[in-house]
Amino acid sequence: MTLVCVPLVARTVEEMVADAAAAAAAGSDLVEIRLDFIQGFRPREHLPQLLRGCPLPVLVTYRPTWEGGQYEGDETTRFDTLRLAMELGVDYVDIELKVADKFMSFISGNKPEKCKLIVSSHNYEYTPSCEELANLVARIQAVGADIVKVATAAKDIVDVSRMFQVMVHCQVPMIGLVMSERGLMSRVLAPKFGGYLTFGILNSAKTSAPGQPTVEELLDVYNIRCIGPDTKVLGLIANPVKQSKSPILHNKCLQYVGYNAVYLPLLGDNLASFLETYSSPDFSGFSCSLPFKVDAVQCCNEHDPVAKSIGAINTIVRRPDGKLVGYNTDYIGAISAIEDGIGGPGSKDAVISPLAGRLIVVVGAGGAGKAIAYGAKEKGARVVVANRTYEKAVSLANAIGGQALRLADLETFRPEDGMILANATSLGMQPNIDGTPIPKKALSFYDVVFDAVYAPKVTRLLREAEECGVKVVSGVEMFIRQAMGQFEHFTGGIEGVMFF
Ligand code: NAP
User: For the Quinate/shikimate 5-dehydrogenase/glutamyl-tRNA reductase domain, which residue ranges apply (predicted)?
Assistant: First the structure.
Protein backbone atom coordinates (compact mmCIF):
# COMPACT_ATOMS: atom_id res chain seq x y z
CA MET A 1 0.00 0.00 0.00
CA THR A 2 1.27 3.48 -0.85
CA LEU A 3 1.47 5.65 2.25
CA VAL A 4 0.06 9.17 2.31
CA CYS A 5 2.47 11.60 3.97
CA VAL A 6 1.74 15.19 4.96
CA PRO A 7 4.81 17.46 4.86
CA LEU A 8 4.88 19.80 7.87
CA VAL A 9 6.38 23.17 7.00
CA ALA A 10 5.29 25.38 9.90
CA ARG A 11 7.69 28.00 11.28
CA THR A 12 7.18 27.08 14.96
CA VAL A 13 7.16 23.82 16.91
CA GLU A 14 3.69 24.56 18.32
CA GLU A 15 2.21 25.13 14.86
CA MET A 16 3.91 22.00 13.57
CA VAL A 17 2.41 19.89 16.36
CA ALA A 18 -1.02 21.36 15.59
CA ASP A 19 -0.53 20.54 11.89
CA ALA A 20 0.49 16.97 12.77
CA ALA A 21 -2.83 16.56 14.61
CA ALA A 22 -4.65 18.00 11.57
CA ALA A 23 -2.79 15.55 9.30
CA ALA A 24 -3.89 12.62 11.48
CA ALA A 25 -7.49 13.87 11.47
CA ALA A 26 -7.36 14.21 7.66
CA GLY A 27 -6.40 10.51 7.33
CA SER A 28 -2.67 10.74 6.61
CA ASP A 29 -0.43 7.73 7.41
CA LEU A 30 2.65 9.68 8.43
CA VAL A 31 4.08 13.18 8.54
CA GLU A 32 7.33 14.57 7.25
CA ILE A 33 8.78 17.01 9.77
CA ARG A 34 10.75 19.57 7.81
CA LEU A 35 13.17 20.77 10.47
CA ASP A 36 14.66 23.29 8.05
CA PHE A 37 11.40 25.30 8.09
CA ILE A 38 11.41 25.88 11.89
CA GLN A 39 12.77 29.28 12.86
CA GLY A 40 15.36 29.27 15.64
CA PHE A 41 15.41 25.47 15.65
CA ARG A 42 17.16 23.98 18.74
CA PRO A 43 17.53 20.22 18.15
CA ARG A 44 17.86 18.91 21.74
CA GLU A 45 14.91 20.98 22.95
CA HIS A 46 12.62 20.97 19.93
CA LEU A 47 13.00 17.45 18.51
CA PRO A 48 11.69 15.63 21.64
CA GLN A 49 8.86 18.18 21.85
CA LEU A 50 7.92 17.55 18.22
CA LEU A 51 8.03 13.78 18.52
CA ARG A 52 6.01 13.76 21.76
CA GLY A 53 3.32 15.92 20.13
CA CYS A 54 3.08 13.93 16.92
CA PRO A 55 0.31 11.27 16.75
CA LEU A 56 1.62 9.64 13.53
CA PRO A 57 4.83 7.90 12.38
CA VAL A 58 7.46 10.49 11.55
CA LEU A 59 9.86 11.11 8.69
CA VAL A 60 12.53 13.65 9.59
CA THR A 61 14.02 15.81 6.84
CA TYR A 62 16.53 18.61 7.39
CA ARG A 63 16.96 19.82 3.84
CA PRO A 64 19.91 22.11 3.02
CA THR A 65 19.59 25.05 0.61
CA TRP A 66 21.85 23.29 -1.92
CA GLU A 67 19.12 20.62 -2.37
CA GLY A 68 16.15 23.00 -2.42
CA GLY A 69 15.61 23.25 1.37
CA GLN A 70 16.02 26.09 3.87
CA TYR A 71 18.90 24.92 6.13
CA GLU A 72 22.02 27.07 5.72
CA GLY A 73 24.17 25.82 8.62
CA ASP A 74 27.10 23.39 8.72
CA GLU A 75 26.88 19.70 7.89
CA THR A 76 28.12 18.39 11.26
CA THR A 77 25.24 20.07 13.12
CA ARG A 78 22.79 18.75 10.52
CA PHE A 79 24.12 15.17 10.66
CA ASP A 80 24.14 15.33 14.46
CA THR A 81 20.47 16.35 14.42
CA LEU A 82 19.51 13.52 12.08
CA ARG A 83 21.39 11.03 14.28
CA LEU A 84 19.57 12.41 17.33
CA ALA A 85 16.24 11.92 15.49
CA MET A 86 17.18 8.27 14.92
CA GLU A 87 18.07 7.81 18.58
CA LEU A 88 14.76 9.37 19.61
CA GLY A 89 12.94 6.69 17.59
CA VAL A 90 11.73 8.33 14.41
CA ASP A 91 10.53 5.96 11.71
CA TYR A 92 12.30 7.48 8.71
CA VAL A 93 15.22 9.82 8.12
CA ASP A 94 15.86 11.48 4.75
CA ILE A 95 19.42 12.13 3.58
CA GLU A 96 20.46 13.56 0.23
CA LEU A 97 22.35 11.29 -2.17
CA LYS A 98 25.11 13.89 -2.55
CA VAL A 99 26.18 13.39 1.09
CA ALA A 100 24.75 9.95 1.83
CA ASP A 101 28.23 8.34 1.95
CA LYS A 102 29.45 10.94 4.42
CA PHE A 103 26.36 10.49 6.57
CA MET A 104 26.82 6.71 6.62
CA SER A 105 30.41 7.20 7.84
CA PHE A 106 29.20 9.78 10.38
CA ILE A 107 26.82 7.25 11.97
CA SER A 108 29.36 4.44 11.34
CA GLY A 109 26.65 2.57 9.45
CA ASN A 110 24.66 2.20 12.70
CA LYS A 111 21.03 3.11 12.87
CA PRO A 112 18.19 1.74 14.96
CA GLU A 113 16.53 -1.22 13.24
CA LYS A 114 13.15 0.54 13.30
CA CYS A 115 14.45 3.55 11.41
CA LYS A 116 14.42 3.41 7.62
CA LEU A 117 16.87 5.54 5.67
CA ILE A 118 15.43 7.39 2.65
CA VAL A 119 18.20 8.50 0.31
CA SER A 120 16.91 11.27 -1.93
CA SER A 121 17.79 13.09 -5.11
CA HIS A 122 16.00 16.22 -6.35
CA ASN A 123 16.14 17.70 -9.82
CA TYR A 124 14.15 20.94 -9.93
CA GLU A 125 14.88 21.56 -13.62
CA TYR A 126 13.77 18.55 -15.63
CA THR A 127 13.22 14.78 -15.73
CA PRO A 128 16.22 12.87 -17.11
CA SER A 129 16.01 9.96 -19.56
CA CYS A 130 14.93 6.51 -18.36
CA GLU A 131 18.53 5.33 -18.52
CA GLU A 132 19.77 8.22 -16.40
CA LEU A 133 16.96 7.71 -13.91
CA ALA A 134 17.77 3.99 -13.66
CA ASN A 135 21.45 4.81 -13.05
CA LEU A 136 20.46 7.28 -10.36
CA VAL A 137 18.31 4.66 -8.64
CA ALA A 138 21.24 2.18 -8.77
CA ARG A 139 23.58 4.76 -7.17
CA ILE A 140 21.06 5.43 -4.40
CA GLN A 141 20.67 1.71 -3.75
CA ALA A 142 24.45 1.29 -3.64
CA VAL A 143 24.86 3.74 -0.73
CA GLY A 144 22.63 1.56 1.44
CA ALA A 145 19.22 3.21 1.12
CA ASP A 146 16.26 1.37 2.59
CA ILE A 147 14.03 3.52 0.39
CA VAL A 148 14.98 5.29 -2.83
CA LYS A 149 13.54 8.76 -3.39
CA VAL A 150 13.82 10.51 -6.75
CA ALA A 151 12.02 13.80 -7.37
CA THR A 152 12.28 15.50 -10.75
CA ALA A 153 10.44 18.29 -12.55
CA ALA A 154 7.96 17.94 -15.43
CA LYS A 155 8.37 20.30 -18.35
CA ASP A 156 5.75 18.28 -20.20
CA ILE A 157 3.21 15.77 -18.90
CA VAL A 158 4.90 13.02 -20.96
CA ASP A 159 7.99 13.31 -18.69
CA VAL A 160 6.07 11.49 -15.95
CA SER A 161 5.97 8.28 -18.00
CA ARG A 162 9.77 7.88 -17.57
CA MET A 163 9.39 7.97 -13.80
CA PHE A 164 6.64 5.34 -13.99
CA GLN A 165 8.84 3.06 -16.11
CA VAL A 166 11.67 3.23 -13.59
CA MET A 167 9.35 2.77 -10.61
CA VAL A 168 7.83 -0.46 -11.88
CA HIS A 169 11.30 -1.98 -12.38
CA CYS A 170 12.84 -0.80 -9.08
CA GLN A 171 13.92 -3.67 -6.82
CA VAL A 172 13.73 -1.69 -3.56
CA PRO A 173 10.92 0.50 -2.19
CA MET A 174 10.86 3.72 -4.19
CA ILE A 175 9.31 7.15 -3.95
CA GLY A 176 9.19 8.58 -7.49
CA LEU A 177 7.64 12.02 -7.84
CA VAL A 178 7.55 14.51 -10.66
CA MET A 179 7.08 18.10 -9.51
CA SER A 180 4.90 20.89 -11.02
CA GLU A 181 1.27 20.84 -12.14
CA ARG A 182 2.28 18.80 -15.21
CA GLY A 183 3.56 16.10 -12.85
CA LEU A 184 0.40 15.71 -10.76
CA MET A 185 -0.22 12.27 -12.25
CA SER A 186 2.94 10.94 -10.56
CA ARG A 187 1.56 11.88 -7.15
CA VAL A 188 -1.95 10.45 -7.60
CA LEU A 189 -0.92 7.30 -9.49
CA ALA A 190 1.87 6.35 -7.06
CA PRO A 191 -0.15 3.29 -5.88
CA LYS A 192 -0.61 2.11 -9.46
CA PHE A 193 3.12 2.11 -10.13
CA GLY A 194 4.26 0.79 -6.74
CA GLY A 195 5.32 4.08 -5.10
CA TYR A 196 6.23 3.73 -1.43
CA LEU A 197 4.63 7.03 -0.45
CA THR A 198 3.12 10.17 -1.88
CA PHE A 199 2.80 13.62 -0.36
CA GLY A 200 -0.48 15.41 0.31
CA ILE A 201 -0.48 18.90 1.80
CA LEU A 202 -2.88 20.27 4.41
CA ASN A 203 -3.71 23.32 2.28
CA SER A 204 -2.21 25.34 -0.55
CA ALA A 205 -0.29 27.61 1.86
CA LYS A 206 1.58 24.60 3.30
CA THR A 207 3.37 23.17 0.30
CA SER A 208 6.91 21.79 0.39
CA ALA A 209 7.33 21.19 -3.37
CA PRO A 210 5.58 22.36 -6.56
CA GLY A 211 2.47 20.47 -7.69
CA GLN A 212 1.46 18.78 -4.44
CA PRO A 213 -2.28 18.00 -4.13
CA THR A 214 -4.00 18.34 -0.76
CA VAL A 215 -4.38 15.26 1.39
CA GLU A 216 -8.13 15.75 1.09
CA GLU A 217 -7.91 15.66 -2.71
CA LEU A 218 -5.81 12.49 -2.60
CA LEU A 219 -8.16 10.70 -0.24
CA ASP A 220 -11.59 12.12 -1.07
CA VAL A 221 -11.44 13.23 -4.71
CA TYR A 222 -9.00 10.71 -6.21
CA ASN A 223 -9.86 7.96 -3.70
CA ILE A 224 -6.18 6.99 -3.63
CA ARG A 225 -6.70 4.09 -1.18
CA CYS A 226 -8.58 2.24 -3.91
CA ILE A 227 -5.97 2.80 -6.64
CA GLY A 228 -3.93 -0.27 -7.52
CA PRO A 229 -1.99 -1.75 -10.44
CA ASP A 230 -5.22 -2.60 -12.31
CA THR A 231 -6.87 0.79 -11.89
CA LYS A 232 -7.76 2.40 -15.20
CA VAL A 233 -6.67 5.99 -15.81
CA LEU A 234 -9.14 8.52 -17.19
CA GLY A 235 -8.76 12.27 -17.30
CA LEU A 236 -9.37 15.65 -18.78
CA ILE A 237 -6.57 16.84 -21.04
CA ALA A 238 -6.70 20.60 -21.40
CA ASN A 239 -4.67 23.75 -20.94
CA PRO A 240 -5.47 25.32 -18.51
CA VAL A 241 -7.11 22.52 -16.54
CA LYS A 242 -7.07 23.23 -12.84
CA GLN A 243 -10.33 25.25 -12.91
CA SER A 244 -12.28 22.21 -14.18
CA LYS A 245 -14.92 20.54 -12.02
CA SER A 246 -14.81 17.37 -14.16
CA PRO A 247 -12.43 15.44 -11.81
CA ILE A 248 -14.78 15.99 -8.86
CA LEU A 249 -17.83 14.94 -10.87
CA HIS A 250 -16.31 11.88 -12.61
CA ASN A 251 -14.49 10.52 -9.56
CA LYS A 252 -17.65 10.75 -7.42
CA CYS A 253 -19.54 8.82 -10.09
CA LEU A 254 -16.77 6.22 -10.47
CA GLN A 255 -16.79 5.68 -6.71
CA TYR A 256 -20.57 5.52 -6.64
CA VAL A 257 -20.74 2.69 -9.17
CA GLY A 258 -17.56 0.97 -7.93
CA TYR A 259 -15.75 1.22 -11.28
CA ASN A 260 -12.00 0.69 -10.82
CA ALA A 261 -10.72 3.90 -12.42
CA VAL A 262 -9.48 7.32 -11.42
CA TYR A 263 -10.10 10.56 -13.34
CA LEU A 264 -7.32 13.16 -13.33
CA PRO A 265 -6.80 16.74 -14.49
CA LEU A 266 -4.06 16.43 -17.13
CA LEU A 267 -2.28 19.67 -18.00
CA GLY A 268 -1.12 19.00 -21.55
CA ASP A 269 0.79 20.81 -24.26
CA ASN A 270 0.46 18.41 -27.18
CA LEU A 271 -2.43 15.96 -27.44
CA ALA A 272 -0.79 13.67 -30.02
CA SER A 273 2.38 13.13 -28.00
CA PHE A 274 0.32 12.61 -24.82
CA LEU A 275 -1.76 9.87 -26.47
CA GLU A 276 1.31 8.27 -28.04
CA THR A 277 3.21 8.21 -24.73
CA TYR A 278 0.38 6.93 -22.54
CA SER A 279 -0.64 4.23 -24.98
CA SER A 280 -1.18 1.29 -22.62
CA PRO A 281 -4.74 -0.10 -22.41
CA ASP A 282 -4.96 1.15 -18.80
CA PHE A 283 -4.99 4.75 -20.02
CA SER A 284 -8.43 4.09 -21.33
CA GLY A 285 -10.36 7.32 -21.81
CA PHE A 286 -9.97 11.06 -21.97
CA SER A 287 -12.07 14.16 -22.03
CA CYS A 288 -10.59 16.90 -24.23
CA SER A 289 -11.15 20.56 -23.73
CA LEU A 290 -9.55 23.78 -24.96
CA PRO A 291 -7.31 23.87 -26.95
CA PHE A 292 -7.41 20.19 -28.01
CA LYS A 293 -10.94 19.56 -29.28
CA VAL A 294 -10.01 20.09 -32.92
CA ASP A 295 -6.60 18.32 -32.69
CA ALA A 296 -8.44 15.32 -31.24
CA VAL A 297 -10.10 14.66 -34.62
CA GLN A 298 -6.67 13.96 -36.19
CA CYS A 299 -5.55 11.86 -33.21
CA CYS A 300 -8.46 9.39 -33.32
CA ASN A 301 -8.54 6.29 -35.53
CA GLU A 302 -12.32 6.23 -35.68
CA HIS A 303 -14.99 8.87 -35.14
CA ASP A 304 -18.60 9.13 -34.26
CA PRO A 305 -20.07 10.57 -37.53
CA VAL A 306 -21.63 13.65 -35.89
CA ALA A 307 -18.36 14.43 -34.09
CA LYS A 308 -16.58 14.25 -37.43
CA SER A 309 -19.07 16.66 -39.05
CA ILE A 310 -18.73 19.06 -36.13
CA GLY A 311 -14.94 18.79 -36.47
CA ALA A 312 -14.45 18.71 -32.70
CA ILE A 313 -14.08 15.83 -30.24
CA ASN A 314 -14.47 16.10 -26.50
CA THR A 315 -14.26 12.39 -25.62
CA ILE A 316 -11.63 9.80 -26.60
CA VAL A 317 -11.96 6.14 -25.73
CA ARG A 318 -9.16 3.60 -26.16
CA ARG A 319 -10.73 0.36 -27.30
CA PRO A 320 -9.22 -2.97 -26.14
CA ASP A 321 -7.57 -3.29 -29.60
CA GLY A 322 -5.72 -0.01 -28.93
CA LYS A 323 -7.73 2.04 -31.46
CA LEU A 324 -8.76 5.52 -30.35
CA VAL A 325 -12.41 6.39 -30.95
CA GLY A 326 -13.59 10.00 -30.81
CA TYR A 327 -17.02 11.27 -29.75
CA ASN A 328 -18.64 14.63 -29.12
CA THR A 329 -20.93 14.63 -26.11
CA ASP A 330 -21.12 18.46 -26.01
CA TYR A 331 -23.80 18.48 -28.67
CA ILE A 332 -25.87 15.79 -26.97
CA GLY A 333 -25.50 17.60 -23.64
CA ALA A 334 -26.49 21.01 -25.03
CA ILE A 335 -29.30 19.80 -27.27
CA SER A 336 -30.94 17.60 -24.63
CA ALA A 337 -30.74 20.50 -22.12
CA ILE A 338 -32.39 22.85 -24.64
CA GLU A 339 -35.03 20.24 -25.54
CA ASP A 340 -35.95 19.84 -21.89
CA GLY A 341 -36.01 23.63 -21.54
CA ILE A 342 -38.47 23.96 -24.42
CA GLY A 343 -40.75 21.12 -23.65
CA GLY A 344 -40.36 20.30 -19.99
CA PRO A 345 -38.90 17.12 -18.52
CA GLY A 346 -38.86 14.07 -20.73
CA SER A 347 -39.37 15.98 -23.97
CA LYS A 348 -35.98 14.90 -25.32
CA ASP A 349 -37.30 11.32 -25.37
CA ALA A 350 -40.23 12.27 -27.60
CA VAL A 351 -40.12 10.76 -31.10
CA ILE A 352 -40.16 14.22 -32.67
CA SER A 353 -37.77 16.65 -31.05
CA PRO A 354 -39.30 19.84 -29.62
CA LEU A 355 -36.58 21.58 -31.66
CA ALA A 356 -38.02 20.35 -34.97
CA GLY A 357 -39.19 23.26 -37.09
CA ARG A 358 -38.10 25.87 -34.50
CA LEU A 359 -35.77 28.75 -35.29
CA ILE A 360 -32.64 28.68 -33.13
CA VAL A 361 -30.06 31.47 -33.07
CA VAL A 362 -26.67 30.09 -32.12
CA VAL A 363 -24.25 32.81 -30.99
CA GLY A 364 -20.65 31.61 -31.40
CA ALA A 365 -18.93 29.52 -34.05
CA GLY A 366 -16.23 27.80 -32.00
CA GLY A 367 -16.35 24.22 -30.69
CA ALA A 368 -19.53 24.67 -28.64
CA GLY A 369 -21.22 26.76 -31.35
CA LYS A 370 -20.54 24.11 -33.99
CA ALA A 371 -21.76 21.34 -31.70
CA ILE A 372 -25.05 23.14 -30.99
CA ALA A 373 -25.59 24.20 -34.62
CA TYR A 374 -25.02 20.65 -35.96
CA GLY A 375 -27.05 19.11 -33.15
CA ALA A 376 -29.99 21.48 -33.69
CA LYS A 377 -29.88 20.87 -37.44
CA GLU A 378 -29.97 17.10 -36.81
CA LYS A 379 -33.12 17.62 -34.76
CA GLY A 380 -34.83 19.45 -37.59
CA ALA A 381 -34.40 23.02 -36.34
CA ARG A 382 -33.80 26.03 -38.64
CA VAL A 383 -30.42 27.41 -37.58
CA VAL A 384 -29.07 30.96 -37.63
CA VAL A 385 -25.45 31.53 -36.63
CA ALA A 386 -24.16 34.85 -35.25
CA ASN A 387 -20.50 35.35 -34.45
CA ARG A 388 -18.01 38.12 -33.66
CA THR A 389 -15.86 36.98 -36.59
CA TYR A 390 -18.51 37.10 -39.28
CA GLU A 391 -16.58 34.86 -41.72
CA LYS A 392 -16.76 32.00 -39.22
CA ALA A 393 -20.50 32.49 -38.86
CA VAL A 394 -20.82 32.30 -42.66
CA SER A 395 -18.71 29.19 -42.89
CA LEU A 396 -20.68 27.36 -40.17
CA ALA A 397 -24.01 28.52 -41.54
CA ASN A 398 -23.05 27.28 -45.02
CA ALA A 399 -21.97 23.91 -43.64
CA ILE A 400 -25.33 23.29 -42.02
CA GLY A 401 -27.52 25.11 -44.53
CA GLY A 402 -28.38 28.01 -42.23
CA GLN A 403 -28.22 31.79 -42.19
CA ALA A 404 -25.31 33.91 -40.88
CA LEU A 405 -25.54 37.13 -38.83
CA ARG A 406 -23.18 39.68 -37.35
CA LEU A 407 -23.36 40.08 -33.57
CA ALA A 408 -24.72 43.61 -34.01
CA ASP A 409 -27.70 42.22 -36.02
CA LEU A 410 -29.01 40.49 -32.91
CA GLU A 411 -30.38 43.76 -31.57
CA THR A 412 -33.12 43.85 -34.22
CA PHE A 413 -33.24 40.29 -35.60
CA ARG A 414 -36.86 39.16 -35.18
CA PRO A 415 -38.15 37.30 -38.24
CA GLU A 416 -40.75 35.52 -36.10
CA ASP A 417 -41.85 35.04 -32.50
CA GLY A 418 -40.94 32.10 -30.28
CA MET A 419 -37.29 31.79 -31.29
CA ILE A 420 -34.63 29.99 -29.21
CA LEU A 421 -31.30 31.62 -28.35
CA ALA A 422 -28.15 29.61 -27.51
CA ASN A 423 -25.05 31.47 -26.38
CA ALA A 424 -21.91 29.49 -27.25
CA THR A 425 -19.39 32.30 -26.79
CA SER A 426 -17.32 32.76 -23.68
CA LEU A 427 -19.03 36.11 -23.00
CA GLY A 428 -20.24 36.20 -19.39
CA MET A 429 -17.80 33.53 -18.23
CA GLN A 430 -15.71 34.10 -15.10
CA PRO A 431 -13.85 36.34 -14.55
CA ASN A 432 -15.57 38.62 -17.13
CA ILE A 433 -19.05 38.08 -15.76
CA ASP A 434 -20.41 41.39 -17.11
CA GLY A 435 -20.20 40.16 -20.70
CA THR A 436 -23.33 39.27 -22.67
CA PRO A 437 -23.80 38.62 -26.41
CA ILE A 438 -27.12 40.43 -26.92
CA PRO A 439 -28.80 43.60 -25.61
CA LYS A 440 -31.42 42.95 -22.92
CA LYS A 441 -34.24 44.55 -24.92
CA ALA A 442 -33.82 41.95 -27.69
CA LEU A 443 -34.24 39.02 -25.31
CA SER A 444 -38.01 39.29 -25.30
CA PHE A 445 -37.95 38.05 -28.96
CA TYR A 446 -37.13 34.58 -27.60
CA ASP A 447 -39.10 31.82 -25.90
CA VAL A 448 -36.07 30.04 -24.44
CA VAL A 449 -32.53 31.29 -23.76
CA PHE A 450 -29.72 28.78 -23.20
CA ASP A 451 -26.20 29.74 -22.10
CA ALA A 452 -23.32 27.25 -22.57
CA VAL A 453 -21.30 29.21 -20.00
CA TYR A 454 -21.62 27.36 -16.67
CA ALA A 455 -19.39 29.41 -14.40
CA PRO A 456 -21.15 31.38 -13.02
CA LYS A 457 -24.28 29.25 -13.03
CA VAL A 458 -26.51 32.30 -13.53
CA THR A 459 -24.83 34.50 -16.14
CA ARG A 460 -25.78 38.06 -16.95
CA LEU A 461 -27.52 36.74 -20.08
CA LEU A 462 -29.68 34.31 -18.07
CA ARG A 463 -30.44 36.90 -15.39
CA GLU A 464 -31.58 39.46 -17.97
CA ALA A 465 -33.59 36.83 -19.89
CA GLU A 466 -35.39 35.85 -16.68
CA GLU A 467 -36.10 39.52 -15.98
CA CYS A 468 -37.76 39.66 -19.44
CA GLY A 469 -39.94 36.67 -18.51
CA VAL A 470 -38.10 34.24 -20.83
CA LYS A 471 -37.51 30.58 -19.94
CA VAL A 472 -33.80 29.96 -19.25
CA VAL A 473 -31.54 26.89 -19.41
CA SER A 474 -28.19 26.96 -17.60
CA GLY A 475 -24.86 25.70 -18.97
CA VAL A 476 -24.65 23.52 -15.86
CA GLU A 477 -27.35 21.34 -17.48
CA MET A 478 -25.11 20.92 -20.54
CA PHE A 479 -22.03 20.31 -18.38
CA ILE A 480 -23.67 17.50 -16.43
CA ARG A 481 -25.18 15.91 -19.52
CA GLN A 482 -21.97 16.02 -21.58
CA ALA A 483 -20.18 14.44 -18.60
CA MET A 484 -22.88 11.78 -18.38
CA GLY A 485 -22.29 10.94 -22.05
CA GLN A 486 -18.55 10.72 -21.43
CA PHE A 487 -19.04 8.54 -18.37
CA GLU A 488 -21.09 6.10 -20.43
CA HIS A 489 -18.35 5.93 -23.08
CA PHE A 490 -15.61 5.47 -20.45
CA THR A 491 -17.37 2.76 -18.48
CA GLY A 492 -19.14 1.05 -21.35
CA GLY A 493 -22.46 2.02 -19.77
CA ILE A 494 -23.05 0.62 -16.32
CA GLU A 495 -26.53 -0.45 -15.37
CA GLY A 496 -28.05 1.60 -12.62
CA VAL A 497 -26.16 4.77 -13.47
CA MET A 498 -29.32 6.84 -13.44
CA PHE A 499 -28.28 9.17 -10.66
CA PHE A 500 -27.25 12.16 -12.76
P1 NAP B 1 -13.98 28.38 -28.66
O2 NAP B 1 -13.96 27.26 -29.61
O3 NAP B 1 -12.74 29.08 -28.28
O4 NAP B 1 -14.99 29.50 -29.27
C5 NAP B 1 -15.17 30.72 -28.58
C6 NAP B 1 -16.34 31.48 -29.23
O7 NAP B 1 -16.57 32.64 -28.41
C8 NAP B 1 -16.03 31.98 -30.63
O9 NAP B 1 -17.23 31.99 -31.36
C10 NAP B 1 -15.55 33.41 -30.36
O11 NAP B 1 -15.74 34.28 -31.46
C12 NAP B 1 -16.46 33.81 -29.23
N13 NAP B 1 -15.90 34.89 -28.42
C14 NAP B 1 -14.83 34.81 -27.60
N15 NAP B 1 -14.63 36.01 -27.00
C16 NAP B 1 -15.60 36.84 -27.48
C17 NAP B 1 -15.90 38.21 -27.25
N18 NAP B 1 -15.19 38.95 -26.42
N19 NAP B 1 -16.96 38.73 -27.91
C20 NAP B 1 -17.70 38.00 -28.76
N21 NAP B 1 -17.44 36.69 -29.02
C22 NAP B 1 -16.41 36.13 -28.38
O23 NAP B 1 -14.69 27.95 -27.28
P24 NAP B 1 -15.84 26.84 -27.07
O25 NAP B 1 -15.25 25.54 -26.72
O26 NAP B 1 -16.78 26.92 -28.20
O27 NAP B 1 -16.53 27.40 -25.72
C28 NAP B 1 -17.38 28.53 -25.75
C29 NAP B 1 -18.07 28.66 -24.39
O30 NAP B 1 -18.87 27.50 -24.16
C31 NAP B 1 -17.10 28.73 -23.22
O32 NAP B 1 -17.59 29.65 -22.28
C33 NAP B 1 -17.13 27.34 -22.63
O34 NAP B 1 -16.87 27.33 -21.23
C35 NAP B 1 -18.57 26.95 -22.90
N36 NAP B 1 -18.71 25.48 -22.94
C37 NAP B 1 -19.54 24.94 -22.01
C38 NAP B 1 -19.72 23.56 -21.97
C39 NAP B 1 -20.64 22.99 -20.96
O40 NAP B 1 -20.57 21.78 -20.69
N41 NAP B 1 -21.54 23.79 -20.40
C42 NAP B 1 -19.04 22.74 -22.90
C43 NAP B 1 -18.21 23.34 -23.87
C44 NAP B 1 -18.06 24.72 -23.87
P45 NAP B 1 -14.61 34.44 -32.59
O46 NAP B 1 -14.84 33.32 -33.56
O47 NAP B 1 -14.88 35.77 -33.16
O48 NAP B 1 -13.28 34.34 -31.89
Answer: 354-413
CA of 170 to the centre of ligand 1 (A): 46
Q: How far apart are CA 307 and CA 324, in angstroms?
A: 14
| Ligand 1 mutation pick, 250, 335, 390, 426, max ligand atoms within 8 A of CB | 426
**Spatial distance between the Cα atoms of 179 and 184, rounded to a whole number of angstroms:** 7
Could you identify the atom of ligand 1 that is nearest to the CA of residue 426? Answer: 32
What pLDDT digit, counting tens, does each position of 36-55 carry? 999 999 999 999 999 999 99
Region 456-473 average pLDDT: 98
Catalytic residues: 122, 149, 293, 330
- 236 Cβ neighbours under 8 A, 6+ residues apart: 244, 246, 247, 263, 264, 265, 266, 286, 287, 288, 289
**Residue 290 Rama label (left phi>0; alpha psi -120 to 50; beta):** beta
Q: Identify whether the C-beta of residue 331 lies closer than 8 Å to the C-beta of residue 482.
A: no
Instruction: Report CA(346)–ligand 1 centroid distance (Å).
Output: 28
Mean pLDDT (the chain, rounded): 95
What are the tens digits of pLDDT across the range 240-295?
Answer: 999 899 999 999 999 999 999 999 999 999 999 999 999 999 999 999 998 999 99
Nearest atom in ligand 1 to 389's CA: 47
pTM strictly above 0.85: yes
Q: Does the CB atom of residue 428 touch ligand 1 within 6 A? A: no
The two most distant CA atoms of the chain are separated, in Å, by: 90
